[in-house]
Recover the amino acids of this structure.
């Protein structure tokens, strides 16, 4: 059975734009009036560049994947504007306007298609991935995500309910990605967690809270002060944002804290405890957050395997979370569901 083609599948199956630095520099000069040196930044769907001017000011320039609807770019821009208004001290990027006062512009690609370009401010700091993990840092991340979710509670946009493969609450749609793994020794493990999602999570999702969520709050997308590595200086990459269950946001973020610890549940438990203290989860959400954490590992494993086979030139970036996801699934598969939930919620005070 194949998943019907939709915007997100197209974006994940379409080559990233590949403008050379000179062409990017010319665009930046023409549209923003900025003369700068262009440095490439990593990206899964879009072409991302650091724009560095002679006086040292840096900005981020994004060329959207041509398969991504313009409404989704507008959605991401509107979210940043909303957060700036609701929580101006929250460390998120701001939109840089064009010479014409617009928040984005269009550019023609070599094949005649048009795509969106936009510029954002640059946030200083280092990615948490490149720092030692600490309990204080995990708790800071939990509080940071809770503050972000509170700021977006009343945010809405026509494109917020778009289709997205990276949605833990819709894992049942990954039939193509699961089938691609058949014959692999890990296929039964993936099937077991897909069955767990269908039986223990999916029936209860209509009854839990939903709002616009970041949906990609992981160790590469949160920046900290190099000198005080539990102080968050930036939350970046709103490209996977959508309207979805809030508990899926928490589970997705918690999943990335299972690595780098003797006890794989210590980090996620610290993160969830800090989040819950500021934005409490209700009993229904607490009952399924561990299942959704496993589900996030499942979709990470399935989508990365599927995409790496199609884009071997970008394999290192695509597969950066893959080994940890499989390791987490193997570990969780050995434990009873109730034990996983209890260990994950040890720091939650009801």
């Amino acid at each position: 059975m194949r998943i019907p083609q939709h915007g997100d599948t197209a974006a994940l199956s379409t080559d990233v734009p590949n403008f050379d630095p000179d062409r990017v520099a010319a665009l930046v000069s023409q549209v923003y009036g900025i003369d700068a040196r262009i440095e490439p930044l990593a990206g899964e769907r879009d072409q991302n560049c650091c724009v560095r001017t002679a006086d040292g000011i840096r900005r981020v320039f994004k060329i959207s994947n041509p398969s991504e609807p313009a409404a989704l770019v507008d959605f991401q821009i509107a979210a940043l504007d909303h957060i700036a208004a609701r929580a101006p001290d929250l460390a998120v990027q701001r939109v840089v306007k064009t010479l014409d006062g617009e928040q984005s512009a269009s550019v023609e690609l070599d094949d005649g298609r048009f795509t969106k370009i936009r510029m954002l401010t640059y946030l200083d700091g280092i990615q948490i991935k490149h720092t030692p993990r600490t309990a204080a840092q995990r708790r800071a991340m939990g509080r940071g995500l809770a503050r972000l979710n509170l700021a977006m509670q009343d945010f809405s946009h026509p494109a917020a309910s778009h289709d997205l493969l990276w949605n833990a609450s819709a894992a049942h749609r990954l039939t193509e990605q699961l089938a691609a793994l058949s014959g692999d020794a890990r296929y039964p493990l993936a099937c077991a967690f897909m069955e767990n999602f269908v039986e223990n999570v999916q029936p209860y999702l209509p009854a839990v809270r939903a709002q616009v969520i970041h949906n990609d709050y992981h160790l590469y997308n949160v920046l900290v002060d190099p000198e005080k590595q539990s102080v968050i200086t930036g939350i970046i990459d709103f490209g996977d944002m959508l309207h979805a269950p809030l508990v899926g946001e928490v589970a997705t973020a918690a999943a990335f804290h299972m690595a780098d610890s003797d006890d794989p549940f210590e980090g996620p438990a610290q993160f969830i405890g800090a989040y819950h203290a500021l934005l409490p989860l209700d009993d229904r959400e607490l009952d399924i957050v561990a299942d959704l954490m496993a589900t996030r590992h499942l979709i990470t494993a399935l989508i990365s395997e599927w995409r790496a086979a199609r884009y071997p030139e970008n394999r290192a970036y695509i597969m950066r979370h893959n080994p940890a996801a499989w390791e987490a699934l193997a570990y969780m598969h050995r434990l009873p569901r109730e034990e996983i939930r209890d260990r994950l919620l040890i720091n939650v005070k009801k």
About this structure: The chain has twelve helices and eleven strands. The chain has two domains: 7-121, 126-344. Residues 22 and 38 are 8 Å apart (CA to CA).
